Amino acid sequence: MSNNKIKYLAYYLPQFHPIPENDEWWGEGFTEWTNVKKAKPLFKGHQQPVKPGELGYYDLLKTEEIQEKQAKLAKEHGIDGFIYYQYWFGNGKMLLEKPAEKMLANINVDLPFCFCWANESWRGIWHGLDNPDTLMEQTYNGEEDYKNYFNYLLPFFQDQRYVKIDNKPVFVVYDAAALPNDFIPFFQNLAKENQLNGIYFMASNRGSNDYDYKSKGFDSKISGDYNVLLDKELFKIRKPTFRNRLLKKLQKNVNLPMVLDYKSFFKKLKYTNSNVETFPMVLPNWDNTPRSKYKGFLFSNSSPDLFKKEIKKAIKFLNNKDCKEKLIIIKSWNEWAEGNYIEPDENLGRNWLKSFK
Fold first, then answer.
1. pLDDT of 162 over the 80 cut
2. Are 171 and 200 in contact, with CB atoms under 8 Å apart?
3. Residue 265 near residue 233, CB atoms below 8 Å
4. DSSP line for 9-30
């Protein structure tokens, strides 16, 4: 990637096609759309359900030319690439890998891409169940397993569309702190053995900026300031004060999710640096009540205009420091069941995307 201008990379969720595991856990035909379609408003003015716009309720494996259409739409609005979530659980077990494989085989999907390894166990509680049981456990099984994972990734790394920094493929790790200490050095050696300049390891937005990413082998970090502030603000709501006990009782009685005002929240958000190159993350909205119902939380009063202000804040953060690459991470392209998307919807059309113009 060149550093002549700001580049935008958007997280991309592949859970838009059925898989046997989701059929077993959630019912036949389950995809991200399942929860989106059955969502209901939980209070007056709550905008649910949301409905997709021009791309419709797509299936990433069946809908004709859907990935080409997504790529074209992204490029037309200044998005420079997708960060595909990837689910490798160890011992060769993967989930939701087919959309990326389909994209790799189709040169007409004309948009750069890279991966975010979502190295975390899947739990039932994510989808609003009271049962926190582990559905699929994340494991780390040593060098032979790491080598198998690298060999799977190699054709993607070698693809001309793969996002590179310093001529190294960018590889985002969701839970940087959980990564075994021998993983990054081992991957770097394998990269050089396969005629790559190395791997550019980027820690995701999970975790604060205070962690020592450099000693772990990371080259950069997606700012964790949003996550830290969110934990702080939600703690204020949950704190056992008299007022909050009263609100909690009311919430339980009338099934109200936690609500934060978008403008007020992001006014408090200040970007800070970690001990590696740090890239800001922008977020258009959040509402995970389609998954979690009244146990979820959402932003109220979000809008493309306010989102555009957050993009400008991120640009200012990058322009006020010396950095080789100027990246802004978008969360997300299509996390519909979390109200966290910039794809066109029925209500706003392409207005989220127009924020980048």
1. yes
2. yes
3. yes
4. EEEE----S--HHHHHHH-TT-
What does the mean pLDDT of the chain come to?
A: 93
Q: Among 135, 133, 130, 137, which Cα is nearest to 22's?
A: 135
With 0.85 as the threshold, say if the pTM is over it. Answer: yes
Number of C-beta neighbours around residue 320 at 10 A: 9
Answer whether 205's CB lies under 8 Å from 331's CB.
yes
Residue labelled with tokens 């790394």: 157
Distance CA 126, CA 326 (A): 33
- Report yes or no: 284 and 341 within 8 Å, Cβ to Cβ: yes
Residue 236 has pLDDT above 90, yes or no: no
Residue 130 pLDDT more than 70?
Answer: no
> What CATH topology corresponds to 7-229+260-354?
TIM Barrel (3.20.20)
CA triplet 73, 282, 272: central angle to 5 degrees? 150
For the chain, what is the radius of gyration of the CA atoms?
20
pLDDT at 208: 82
